[in-house]
Amino acid sequence: MRIPAHSVCTAIRDDIVAGVYERGSRLTEELLARRYGVSRVPVREALRTLEAEGFVVTRRHAGACVAEPTEQEASDLLEMRMLLEPLGAARAAQRRTEAHLKVLRGLVRLGQERARRGNSEDLRSLGGWFHETLAQASGSPALTSTLAQLRHKIAWMYAVEAPANPVESWAEHGGIVDAVARGDSERARTITALHTERATSAHRLRFAGRPAAPERPDRVRTSQHPVNTPSLRH
Q1: Where does this protein have compositionally biased stretches of type Polar residues (predicted)?
Q2: Rounded to an integer, what distance in angstroms lies between the CA atom of residue 204 and that of residue 179?
Q3: What would the pLDDT profile of 144-199 be if each residue is shown by its tens digit?
């Protein structure tokens, strides 16, 4: 059965973000099809999508390659997120459903519990789920999609230090949810803007001052995202 291009796209994107493919390295259709166990057709479609998203560029005589973002481009992403996440929170206060609130409150409870225990790895995942759910609660597919792309790119370009005070960070998450639950869009916007600004200071550019990798298609680490599996055939 034909594997959907979006599944291949997700796998390649995740591996780019994880550093499986270095910046500037070539992405040949044959290599990718073999690595993910699919035909070249979904790979070709996935590369077009990833090029539109900015993860891949097409170079003359080289074909598809992992993009090499500049420090300015990386900085712009953080600035965009600082503008859009507060907007998403404000929209969520106006459009959220009870289902969104239930998930957000559950994540806050877990986050606060893990923060008290000092489980930093759990907190990273919970934080990602929280902000993804908050974006979905905005009721705007375009905004949700844009914020998701920003999160992927920022995770690719930046290493993030754990919050100095995770309990305080999750208290801010709780404040955002309270404002969203009350329908107070301005309060939700304000707390989210403060939270995002504080989080931004913990980002450290991964490639600052480092040259890009040479164009070697074989220079990849083991992928953690096989695509041609039974779970994706439903």
Answers
A1: 223-234
A2: 30
A3: 999 999 999 999 999 988 888 899 999 999 999 999 999 999 999 999 999 999 99
